[in-house]
Amino acid sequence: MNTQNFTITRGDTWERVIYFKDDDEVAIDITGWTIFFTVKEKVSDEDASAKISKTITTHTDPTNGESKITLTYTDTALTCKNYIYDLQVKTDEGEIKTLLEGVITIKQDITIRTS
Asked: Using CA atoms, how far apart are residues 68 and 3, in angstroms rounded to an integer?
């Protein structure tokens, strides 16, 4: 499992493309996979209490191992502080694997208006 931390400005749309590759850097076909992206305040929080919860079943280029996580401005309109997250996958064979985790820092936005 890998660790990666992110900083997101409060109220911004945020996207990350994810590439799935094997140990030889060859793309893994993720057709039929489900990606779970969950952001919480504490590890012990129930999934139902997650601050952000995304389930991704449609991928940008599944045969070449590419998918995308998109957080909307309403997703990131959180209290400015650190949160924890992880990214799990459920493969087409039903295996569950946690592939990435870390801290997401929501930082204060300067411009708050939207029009």
From this structure: 18
Per the CB < 8 A criterion, the answer to whether 110 and 13 are in contact is: no
Number of domains comprising the chain:
1
Q: What share of the chain is helix, strand, coil (3-state, %, to 5)?
A: 5, 45, 50
With respect to residue 91, please indicate whether it lies within any of the assigned structural domains: yes
CATH code for position 49: 2.60.40.10
**DSSP classification of residue 29:** P
Query: Can you tell me the distance from the alpha carbon of 47 to that of 58, in angstroms, rounded to the nearest whole number?
Result: 21
pLDDT tens-digit profile of 36-55?
999 999 999 999 999 999 99
**What pLDDT, in 10s, does the model give residues 6-44?**
999 999 999 999 999 999 999 999 999 999 999 999 999
Taking the C-alpha atoms of residue 95 and residue 78, their distance in angstroms, rounded to an integer, is 32
Give residue 71's Cα distance to chain centre: 8
